[in-house]
Amino acid sequence: MSYFDRSILFLKGMAMGVSDLIPGISGGTIALLLGIYKNFISSLKSIDFSTFTYLFQLNFKKLDSQINFNFLITVFLGIITSIFIFSNLISHLLVNQKILLFSFFFGLILFSSVKLILNLSPRSFFDFLYIILGISIGVSILFVNPLSTSNNFLSIFISGLVAISAMLLPGISGSYILLLIGKYQFMLDSISNLKITNILIFSLGAIIGLLSFSKIIHWLIDKFYRPTIFFLGGLMLGALNKVWPWQVNDEIVFPFGDATELILSTIFFMVSGLISFYLKSK
Predict the structure, then answer these.
(1) N or C: which terminus of the chain carries fewer CB neighbours within 10 A?
(2) Which of 71, 95, 114 is nearest to 22 (CA)?
(3) Buried b / exposed e across 43-81, counting CB within 10 Å, b at 16+?
(4) Which of 44-53, 74-83, 89-98, 116-125 has the lowest average pLDDT?
(5) Whole-model pTM?
């Protein structure tokens, strides 16, 4: 892998990290839109006990052969770097520029999801059934009420396990899952303030969820590629309700604001459409 390819891959990892900080947007969605989703899942599912043996021995040649280590470590470094650098910025934008931020991501996910589905040319009854099923599940997430959980170590561990599993699925936001189980602001504060214990316990849960759930997704993509992609495309479309720019108390409303903000929102939406046109999904 050349230095240029590694740099591009690192930036794609950073894009995944930024999206994982935003409730309603999945890192899996961005990986799919950027064309690295299939390789990402394939690399994760290949991790087993021997991987840790090779890692302990610092045998990077065997690691790369087994799990495409150079690819995986570059993506993860991008994700981690992005989360630590942009956690404060995303918090600021969610409070002060949420409409513009969500306008961009709404357009990006909308156009890219449609493109993803059309690229496979759905024809049969079952093709459309998988799409509708994905849309239905994505929409239903809107009606789940947030829970209130304690902040003990077991709760933090389970939060990491559940959130990362959701994060791997395009259309289901790990951040939104954290919001539903009452851990989003808690973990964002933990990262911003470098509360190492909370971060480590959450990470342990995330690693276990990552290794187990990636095998399930890989099997589905390998054995049932078209149905899986149609379902994931529908899931992304259905989950768009979580990134609709104009919401009041989590209720979707018609666009509001001054003329300048509406014009800027439209521009952000159109730019995201142009970007999605050049993205290659896999």
Answers:
(1) N
(2) 95
(3) bbbbbeeebeebeeeeeeeebbebbbbbbbbbbbbbbee
(4) 89-98
(5) 0.74
